[in-house]
Inverse folding.
Protein backbone atom coordinates (compact mmCIF):
# COMPACT_ATOMS: atom_id res chain seq x y z
CA UNK A 1 0.00 0.00 0.00
CA UNK A 2 1.28 3.47 -0.86
CA UNK A 3 -0.18 6.83 0.00
CA UNK A 4 0.26 10.44 -1.05
CA UNK A 5 -0.87 13.03 1.47
CA UNK A 6 -2.66 16.18 0.40
CA UNK A 7 -2.78 19.45 2.27
CA UNK A 8 -5.93 18.67 4.24
CA UNK A 9 -5.77 16.97 7.60
CA UNK A 10 -6.60 13.27 7.51
CA UNK A 11 -10.05 12.72 8.99
CA UNK A 12 -10.70 9.79 11.28
CA UNK A 13 -13.80 7.62 11.47
CA UNK A 14 -14.00 5.58 14.62
CA UNK A 15 -17.12 3.55 13.86
CA UNK A 16 -18.24 3.82 17.50
CA UNK A 17 -21.95 4.29 18.22
CA UNK A 18 -23.27 7.52 19.66
CA UNK A 19 -21.63 9.97 17.26
CA UNK A 20 -23.69 13.10 16.75
CA UNK A 21 -24.83 14.00 13.24
CA UNK A 22 -22.52 17.00 13.26
CA UNK A 23 -19.50 14.92 14.18
CA UNK A 24 -20.35 12.32 11.53
CA UNK A 25 -20.39 15.04 8.89
CA UNK A 26 -16.94 16.12 9.99
CA UNK A 27 -15.52 12.59 10.01
CA UNK A 28 -17.03 11.30 6.79
CA UNK A 29 -17.71 12.61 3.33
CA UNK A 30 -20.94 12.25 1.36
CA UNK A 31 -23.69 9.90 2.57
CA UNK A 32 -26.44 7.94 0.84
CA UNK A 33 -28.71 5.00 1.59
CA UNK A 34 -28.94 1.59 -0.18
CA UNK A 35 -30.54 -0.25 -1.89
CA UNK A 36 -32.15 2.66 -3.75
CA UNK A 37 -30.55 3.72 -7.06
CA UNK A 38 -27.36 5.60 -6.22
CA UNK A 39 -27.02 9.06 -7.72
CA UNK A 40 -23.87 11.14 -8.07
CA UNK A 41 -23.50 13.50 -5.14
CA UNK A 42 -22.69 17.17 -5.55
CA UNK A 43 -21.22 19.64 -3.12
CA UNK A 44 -18.40 17.41 -1.85
CA UNK A 45 -15.12 19.05 -0.88
CA UNK A 46 -12.66 19.63 -3.71
CA UNK A 47 -9.69 20.06 -1.36
CA UNK A 48 -6.65 17.82 -2.00
CA UNK A 49 -7.21 14.29 -0.74
CA UNK A 50 -4.90 11.67 0.70
CA UNK A 51 -4.47 9.24 -2.20
CA UNK A 52 -4.00 5.50 -1.69
CA UNK A 53 -3.04 2.55 -3.88
CA UNK A 54 -3.34 -1.21 -3.42
CA UNK A 55 -0.64 -3.84 -3.65
CA UNK A 56 -0.83 -7.06 -5.67
CA UNK A 57 -1.30 -10.37 -3.87
CA UNK A 58 0.49 -10.15 -0.53
CA UNK A 59 -0.50 -13.75 0.28
CA UNK A 60 1.72 -16.44 -1.33
CA UNK A 61 -0.08 -18.27 -4.15
CA UNK A 62 -0.94 -21.68 -2.69
CA UNK A 63 -0.51 -23.81 -5.81
CA UNK A 64 2.27 -25.13 -8.01
CA UNK A 65 -0.05 -25.33 -11.04
CA UNK A 66 1.34 -23.84 -14.22
CA UNK A 67 -0.23 -22.88 -17.54
CA UNK A 68 2.70 -21.58 -19.56
CA UNK A 69 0.93 -22.38 -22.84
CA UNK A 70 -2.17 -20.35 -21.87
CA UNK A 71 -2.91 -16.65 -22.26
CA UNK A 72 -5.37 -15.03 -19.88
CA UNK A 73 -7.42 -11.88 -20.39
CA UNK A 74 -8.42 -9.93 -17.26
CA UNK A 75 -11.71 -8.30 -18.25
CA UNK A 76 -12.86 -4.97 -16.82
CA UNK A 77 -14.36 -5.74 -13.39
CA UNK A 78 -17.97 -4.79 -12.70
CA UNK A 79 -19.27 -3.19 -9.49
CA UNK A 80 -22.19 -1.22 -8.13
CA UNK A 81 -21.99 2.53 -8.56
CA UNK A 82 -21.15 2.98 -4.88
CA UNK A 83 -17.90 1.05 -5.47
CA UNK A 84 -17.08 2.03 -9.05
CA UNK A 85 -15.41 5.32 -8.15
CA UNK A 86 -12.25 6.71 -6.58
CA UNK A 87 -13.90 7.14 -3.17
CA UNK A 88 -13.28 4.81 -0.21
CA UNK A 89 -16.45 3.24 1.13
CA UNK A 90 -17.37 2.97 4.83
CA UNK A 91 -20.40 0.86 5.76
CA UNK A 92 -22.09 2.41 8.79
CA UNK A 93 -24.99 -0.07 8.86
CA UNK A 94 -26.59 -2.68 6.64
CA UNK A 95 -28.27 -0.03 4.50
CA UNK A 96 -26.15 3.10 5.05
CA UNK A 97 -22.77 3.73 3.50
CA UNK A 98 -20.55 6.79 3.56
CA UNK A 99 -17.27 7.84 1.98
CA UNK A 100 -14.06 8.37 3.95
CA UNK A 101 -13.39 12.09 4.11
CA UNK A 102 -10.38 13.59 2.29
CA UNK A 103 -9.26 10.13 1.10
CA UNK A 104 -9.40 8.46 -2.30
CA UNK A 105 -8.00 5.61 -4.40
CA UNK A 106 -5.34 6.41 -6.99
CA UNK A 107 -7.84 5.58 -9.76
CA UNK A 108 -11.36 4.24 -10.15
CA UNK A 109 -11.48 1.22 -7.82
CA UNK A 110 -12.41 -1.30 -10.52
CA UNK A 111 -9.43 -0.19 -12.63
CA UNK A 112 -7.10 -0.53 -9.64
CA UNK A 113 -8.43 -4.05 -8.94
CA UNK A 114 -7.97 -5.04 -12.59
CA UNK A 115 -4.42 -3.69 -12.71
CA UNK A 116 -3.43 -5.49 -9.50
CA UNK A 117 -4.94 -8.77 -10.70
CA UNK A 118 -2.85 -8.55 -13.88
CA UNK A 119 0.24 -7.81 -11.77
CA UNK A 120 -0.46 -10.73 -9.41
CA UNK A 121 -0.76 -13.20 -12.30
CA UNK A 122 2.38 -11.83 -13.97
CA UNK A 123 4.35 -12.18 -10.74
CA UNK A 124 3.70 -15.94 -10.64
CA UNK A 125 5.54 -16.48 -13.94
CA UNK A 126 3.21 -19.43 -14.59
CA UNK A 127 1.25 -18.14 -17.58
CA UNK A 128 2.15 -17.68 -21.20
CA UNK A 129 0.63 -14.23 -21.10
CA UNK A 130 -1.81 -12.09 -19.16
CA UNK A 131 -3.25 -8.69 -19.93
CA UNK A 132 -6.19 -6.34 -20.32
CA UNK A 133 -8.58 -5.89 -23.26
CA UNK A 134 -6.93 -4.16 -26.21
CA UNK A 135 -3.42 -5.45 -25.49
CA UNK A 136 -3.37 -7.92 -28.41
CA UNK A 137 -3.41 -11.24 -26.56
CA UNK A 138 -4.27 -14.49 -28.35
CA UNK A 139 -6.83 -15.27 -25.65
CA UNK A 140 -7.32 -18.81 -24.36
CA UNK A 141 -9.30 -17.85 -21.25
CA UNK A 142 -10.76 -14.71 -19.76
CA UNK A 143 -11.31 -13.88 -16.11
CA UNK A 144 -14.48 -11.89 -15.46
CA UNK A 145 -14.82 -10.40 -11.99
CA UNK A 146 -17.48 -8.59 -9.99
CA UNK A 147 -16.45 -6.50 -6.98
CA UNK A 148 -19.24 -7.21 -4.49
CA UNK A 149 -17.69 -5.58 -1.42
CA UNK A 150 -14.68 -3.33 -0.89
CA UNK A 151 -15.36 -1.39 2.27
CA UNK A 152 -14.55 -0.54 5.85
CA UNK A 153 -17.18 -2.25 8.02
CA UNK A 154 -17.81 -0.62 11.40
CA UNK A 155 -20.13 -3.07 13.18
CA UNK A 156 -18.34 -5.21 15.77
CA UNK A 157 -14.94 -3.56 15.25
CA UNK A 158 -13.57 -1.65 12.28
CA UNK A 159 -12.29 -3.99 9.56
CA UNK A 160 -11.60 -4.13 5.86
CA UNK A 161 -13.98 -6.36 3.89
CA UNK A 162 -13.30 -7.46 0.31
CA UNK A 163 -15.45 -9.83 -1.72
CA UNK A 164 -14.89 -10.54 -5.41
CA UNK A 165 -16.76 -13.03 -7.57
CA UNK A 166 -14.64 -14.52 -10.36
CA UNK A 167 -15.74 -16.34 -13.51
CA UNK A 168 -13.18 -18.15 -15.67
CA UNK A 169 -14.37 -18.67 -19.24
CA UNK A 170 -13.12 -20.30 -22.44
CA UNK A 171 -14.99 -20.93 -25.69
CA UNK A 172 -16.89 -23.91 -24.30
CA UNK A 173 -17.59 -23.56 -20.60
CA UNK A 174 -16.85 -21.62 -17.44
CA UNK A 175 -16.28 -21.90 -13.71
CA UNK A 176 -17.51 -19.45 -11.07
CA UNK A 177 -16.39 -18.89 -7.50
CA UNK A 178 -16.67 -16.07 -4.95
CA UNK A 179 -13.75 -15.05 -2.76
CA UNK A 180 -14.06 -13.08 0.48
CA UNK A 181 -11.64 -11.92 3.16
CA UNK A 182 -11.70 -9.61 6.17
CA UNK A 183 -8.84 -7.95 8.02
CA UNK A 184 -9.07 -5.94 11.26
CA UNK A 185 -8.04 -2.30 11.25
CA UNK A 186 -5.08 -1.63 13.55
CA UNK A 187 -6.03 1.99 14.05
CA UNK A 188 -8.75 4.52 13.35
CA UNK A 189 -7.18 6.76 10.71
CA UNK A 190 -7.41 6.62 6.92
CA UNK A 191 -4.03 4.89 6.58
CA UNK A 192 -5.04 2.15 9.03
CA UNK A 193 -8.36 1.62 7.26
CA UNK A 194 -6.73 1.34 3.84
CA UNK A 195 -4.07 -1.02 5.23
CA UNK A 196 -6.86 -3.33 6.40
CA UNK A 197 -8.48 -3.21 2.97
CA UNK A 198 -5.13 -3.85 1.32
CA UNK A 199 -4.54 -6.90 3.53
CA UNK A 200 -7.98 -8.33 2.74
CA UNK A 201 -7.51 -7.63 -0.97
CA UNK A 202 -4.14 -9.40 -0.91
CA UNK A 203 -5.76 -12.54 0.48
CA UNK A 204 -8.56 -12.47 -2.08
CA UNK A 205 -6.15 -11.86 -4.96
CA UNK A 206 -3.91 -14.74 -3.89
CA UNK A 207 -6.91 -17.08 -3.75
CA UNK A 208 -8.17 -15.95 -7.17
CA UNK A 209 -4.76 -16.53 -8.74
CA UNK A 210 -4.38 -19.98 -7.18
CA UNK A 211 -7.91 -21.05 -8.16
CA UNK A 212 -7.50 -19.81 -11.72
CA UNK A 213 -4.18 -21.59 -12.28
CA UNK A 214 -5.70 -24.83 -11.04
CA UNK A 215 -8.55 -24.48 -13.55
CA UNK A 216 -6.40 -23.80 -16.62
Amino acid sequence: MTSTTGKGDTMVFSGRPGLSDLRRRRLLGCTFVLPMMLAALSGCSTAPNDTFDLTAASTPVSTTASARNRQLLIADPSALKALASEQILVRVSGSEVQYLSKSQWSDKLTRVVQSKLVEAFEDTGRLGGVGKPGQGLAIDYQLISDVRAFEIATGGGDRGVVEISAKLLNDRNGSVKAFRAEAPSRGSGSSAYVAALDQAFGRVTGEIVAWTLQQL
